[in-house]
Design a protein that fits this description.
Length: 499
């Protein structure tokens, strides 16, 4: 294969009437998906030509996925925009993206047109006639190195970075995913993350690669836990891939004492550190039949570069390993001197191989900063990605995640990983989740946490027993809930602003 559309077309040939994608309002079969996407592609090619970015301004829905594939049929590159994002931030994205057009619907048309004059309404362009000759011409000229989509980072400050992901990246990555986790046409995947977040790439393209079914779970499932188990059971969801915070909703509410998913076979997670208590709750309530795995990777490696299958009947460590490299994806560690790290020595994680993005869209300076020549193979060109993640290898040969370079601080002569403080704090009392921030001007570490009973003084006393004094936070703040960004991760910038 050289084009991701071949995955959808193959599924449409094999099982034309099988449901591909489902949201709260509608579902679409593989045959309907391909035909609708072809109509969109034919219209866009006639209006725009090919090779340009096209933005999608829609709710997470079957329509949004159809628009994604329609843009690909037209030979253009899609970018999904968060409709909740402040207009000023979207304008920053559009300043580098310079989209040829925006696809939206009547509900969001006014906002979309304020951002881009050339806005197409999806329901209207879905009525277009399929131009097979043009679509064949586009396909014949494409290569697997062509861009598929551009995904912008979710940071709340600075200029957004648009990661370019190619057909080759997704074809290689999706093959690893279905092979590693045995995903086939019987899989019913419950999607939690937004379509502008890299984890959704696994959901959408894992579904297409396997000819499976994807359920786009509504946000209310994660606001009202009782609806979560009911929805998973109604659709017979047997595979989930969520951020740990979403798993925490069930654990913190005691959901499984009331109802639990009956069909679950595989539970994968990524995006942030999984609290041992949360994982323990899930593993206690499911038997040997359910596989749990910790997936790890940045947007720049399509989604994931390493993974770790959690062993059953073993004590869950405070910090799970991030495991070993995925097939067709290489990783290595460089220490602070730029040399390959010895076993047990910490350093920065680098990634190479076909999962690695070619760089950032319309941003050669940042591309050159993070996508660099492999220093271990200087005799020929090989670009790899500097992740900024600090890791080391344990005695079992597994990677351990220690934190981010930008979360590593130096205070009073000590180098400190804020993630280390978080990991220990999560073992105290009934602490559910926590996050550390650092005020460089005051040289002050702040620990924010949620718990029912554990108070600040009790938490500090327990941390004093378990950590070196130089690691102890200066201020501890108990909150009802920790703020979240649009992707469901803890919003540390929000916490910093609250001080």
């Amino acid at each position: 294969m050289k084009n991701i559309l071949q995955m959808a077309e193959l599924a449409a040939e094999r099982t034309p009437d099988k449901t591909a994608f489902v949201d709260e309002k509608k579902s679409i079969s593989y045959l309907e998906l391909v035909e609708s996407a072809k109509r969109i592609g034919s219209f866009l090619y006639a209006q725009l030509g090919k090779g340009r970015p096209v933005a999608i301004f829609l709710d997470k829905s079957v329509e949004a996925i159809t628009a994604m594939l329609g843009i690909v049929y037209s030979g253009n590159i899609y970018t999904v925009i968060d409709i909740q994002m402040p207009p000023e931030r979207i304008k920053k994205i559009f300043a580098t993206l310079d989209p040829a057009a925006v696809i939206s619907d009547e509900k969001h048309a006014q906002t979309a047109r304020s951002l881009c004059e050339k806005t197409f309404i999806l329901n209207e362009i879905c009525k277009s006639v399929i131009d097979e000759a043009s679509l064949d011409l586009i396909r014949g000229e494409q290569t697997d190195a062509d861009p598929l989509y551009i995904l912008y980072t979710s940071g709340s400050t600075g200029m957004p970075k648009g990661t370019v992901i190619t057909h080759r990246n997704v074809l290689s990555y999706s093959q690893w995913f279905v092979d590693t986790f045995g995903v086939d046409g019987t899989a019913v995947i419950g999607n939690q993350t937004p379509l502008y977040f890299s984890m959704s790439v696994t959901d959408v393209y894992g579904t297409l690669r396997a000819g499976a079914e994807l359920i786009l779970l509504p946000k209310k499932c994660f606001s009202f836990p009782i609806t979560l188990a009911d929805t998973l059971n109604r659709y017979r969801v047997n595979l989930i891939y969520w951020v740990p915070s979403a798993y925490g909703i069930a654990a913190n509410s005691g959901l499984f004492e009331i109802e639990k998913p009956k069909y679950l076979k595989k539970a994968l997670f990524a995006g942030e550190v999984m609290p041992a208590k949360t994982l323990g709750y899930w593993m206690r309530h499911f038997g040997e039949d359910v596989l749990f795995a910790n997936l790890f990777g940045p947007t720049e490696t399509t989604d994931i570069c390493t993974y770790y299958v959690v062993p059953r009947n073993a004590e869950i460590p405070v910090s799970l390993p991030i495991g070993r490299h995925c097939d067709n994806c290489g990783v290595f560690i460089l220490n602070s001197e730029g040399l390959e790290a010895a076993p047990g020595e910490e350093g920065e994680l680098y990634v190479r191989g076909t999962f690695v993005s070619p760089g950032y869209y319309n941003d050669p300076e940042k591309t050159a900063q993070f996508f660099v020549q492999n220093p271990l193979r200087p005799a020929y060109p090989e670009i790899c990605y500097k992740t900024g993640d600090i890791v080391r290898i344990n005695p079992e040969g597994e990677l351990l995640y220690l934190g981010r370079k930008d979360h590593q601080i130096k205070r009073r002569g000590y180098r400190i990983e804020l993630g280390e403080i978080e990991n220990v704090a999560q073992t105290v009392g009934d602490v559910r989740e926590c996050a550390c921030t650092y005020d460089a001007e005051a040289e002050s570490i702040h620990l924010f946490y949620t718990a029912d009973k554990t108070e600040e003084k009790e938490l500090l006393a327990e941390l004093t027993k378990k950590m070196n004094r130089y690691l102890l936070p200066d201020q501890i703040h108990k909150l009802p809930v920790l703020p979240r960004n649009a992707n469901g991760k803890i919003d540390r910038k929000n916490l910093e602003r609250s001080l």
